[in-house]
């Protein structure tokens, strides 16, 4: 009977049962102190195993606060339109972009007179411009009817603008993108939109490459010149421009079929399918609701350094889980044969089980201490972080 009792006590999988839940619970607390909201714990281990980190451009690498810097006419030999014509184009753009959740829309709506005045989704009125039959073409742009004419605003291909011609007229700069406007298939003008990079983007990308050994890919629906300029500036290994949501998803599936594990970082409605399909995905607090619903982590900070903090904490959490499993398995492998042979009395089996569980919990608590030390060393002194370390409930 004492041998049977000792065996039952030793084989109770307390340490194994605690190995993962305790670490995940402490990891959630550590993430929150760093301004990171974990929505799916499965992403923690996937982050540490990723071989590719893919990033969207607008609203992800940039702050998502675009501003209109230039309007160029598409008329041959006339890059400068009259003020009256420019004002009308802007009015059309504002009417088409009303109620749009895309970050680029804010560049038009923030202009004088740019706030929407209507409340119905089918009709949009700005000044003398009224839009009916408005349609949002995912990954391309917006189409609507104005005075019997079909107007479009969005990508160059969607509006029938030759990408090579646009690239010749607009100097490619990192953080800039181009939006076209057309009527009945005829290109009218190009809007040059500037959006500043998030703080610490270049430094964070360099550290991600150094610490993970993964390749960095920029994949965006923006024009080729803008995407290439940003990829070269930030040191990406590869880039893709003019990518629709279907293109992004197909690119992701192709990489996964090749045995690669992909982390995707995005913020828009167009990114939702690839965020859901990625091995691990990251979005931002100011992202669209659809994007946040389909990702594993939401960053509550505007500082891009949160990406590096996310990886480091995930790496520590996975390391501690493996250590806990290793100890629990080693303890059972050693104690069970001894208990079966009658070498372990019941009181010693109970003590060993308790000490084993305590060791797993104590080892897991190291994550809390490491997260605090890291926060004091370089966390909230960085630009865009909260010095108090406490984040508003909203």
Q: Secondary structure elements and their pairing?
A:
Blueprint: H1 2-10, H2 14-19, H3 21-33, E1 36-38, H4 42-49, E2 52-55, E3 67-73, H5 83-97, H6 105-109, E4 124-126, E5 129-137, E6 141-146, E7 149-154, H7 163-169, E8 176-183, E9 186-194, H8 201-212, E10 215-219, H9 224-234, E11 238-240, H10 245-257, E12 262-265, H11 272-277, E13 280-284, H12 289-293, E14 297-299, H13 305-340, H14 346-364, H15 366-379
Parallel strand pairs: 2-10, 2-12, 10-11, 12-13, 13-14
Antiparallel strand pairs: 1-14, 3-9, 4-5, 5-6, 6-7, 7-8, 8-9
Characterization of this structure:
The chain has 394 residues and is of the alpha/beta class. Among the domains are: 131 residues, HAD superfamily/HAD-like (Rossmann fold); 128 residues, Calcium-transporting ATPase, cytoplasmic domain N, CATH 3.40.1110. Strand 12, helix 11 and strand 13 form a beta-alpha-beta unit. The termini are far apart. The radius of gyration is 27 Å and the shape is elongated. It contains 15 helices and 14 strands. The C terminus is likely disordered. Helix 1 runs antiparallel to helix 13, helix 13 runs antiparallel to helix 14 and helix 13 runs antiparallel to helix 15. Helices cover 45% and strands 19% of the residues. A seven-stranded mixed β-sheet has the order 1-14-13-12-2-10-11, with helices on both faces. The longest helix has 36 residues.
